[in-house]
Amino acid sequence: MAAGFITLITGVLIVLNSNWEFEELFITIGLVLTVLSLAFAVFVLKPKEDRIEGLAEEHGLTAPETVAEMQRAALYGRGMTVVVTIVIVVMILKPGV
Fold this sequence. Notes:
Layout: H1 2-16, H2 25-59, H3 64-93
């Protein structure tokens, strides 16, 4: 999660110290998706991680409830990977430029 915040701050600083503007389509897409992914990590993934930890302590790692939560978390993680990949592709291809 810290890496996401560092990425966001770095991106903003790069735009502020360059000839690019926040109105550029690729910058807007990148920043919006980065903010959304950070919010998802904070408000969905972190609570999910805490729930899994609690279930593992209470029922064990191999309990069906724990395994089901871990599988859901893995699915969310794959979704986050797709979003981050889209951000990287957008930053490389720079649509709208």
